[in-house]
Design a protein that fits this description.
With about 150 residues, this protein is of the alpha+beta class. The chain has two domains: about 50 residues; about 90 residues, no CATH class. It is built from one helix and nine strands. The chain has a four-stranded mixed beta sheet. Strands 3-2-6 form a three-stranded antiparallel beta sheet, with no helix packed on it. The longest helix has about 55 residues. It is globular and about 35 Å long. The N and C termini lie far apart (about 60 Å). Bound molecules: zinc ion (ZN) (2 copies). One zinc ion (ZN) binds next to loops. The site of one zinc ion has 8 residues, from loops.
Length: about 150
């Protein structure tokens, strides 16, 4: 337990600290005022830039295997890259001339999807690995185009 006089000293010291902090805060406020304008201008610029991006997110997206982005799979024979633009397109290896049926797509190792908007490699994944042997989603980190295997 603190002696009453000690406690009193502490609270007086605290009061002095609080007073000091108020003065510092006041100084910061007046110093900050000079920077308020340029900061606001920066925010304006950022917001204008983010508007088209937000619209892209809502417009650019597809659902369903038929609207699947172009895919690149590994050839089971030689490991070469086979590019399939559409899901009903041919799966012919340009390196070893192996040919696959489109039904064989799930058995081939997928390298990546290609974003149909900006051409970047997309990231992909599955939500239910036990139900589907094909990716269920793919997303482009550059332009935010997003593809889904089905509604969820
Ligand atoms: Zn091959
Ligand atoms: Zn993209």
């Amino acid at each position: 337990m603190l002696a009453p006089s000690h406690a009193c000293n502490v609270s007086r010291r605290l009061q002095r600290l609080v007073d000091g902090a108020t003065v510092v805060a006041g100084k910061l406020r007046s110093a900050g005022r000079a920077f308020v304008r340029p900061l606001l201008t920066d925010t304006d610029v950022d917001m204008t830039l983010s508007i088209p991006e937000a619209q892209t997110t809502t417009i650019d997206g597809d659902i369903g295997w038929a609207s699947r982005p172009p895919a690149t799979v590994h050839c089971a024979e030689c490991g070469g890259h086979i590019y399939q633009h559409r899901p009903d397109g041919t799966l012919d290896c340009p390196d070893c001339y192996a040919e696959y049926d489109i039904e064989e797509f799930p058995s081939l190792e997928l390298s990546h999807f290609t974003c149909p908007v900006c051409g970047d490699e997309m990231v992909h994944g599955r939500r239910h690995p036990e139900q589907f042997d094909v990716p269920e989603w793919a997303t482009c980190n550059r332009c935010r185009y997003h593809w889904e295997f089905e509604h969820f």
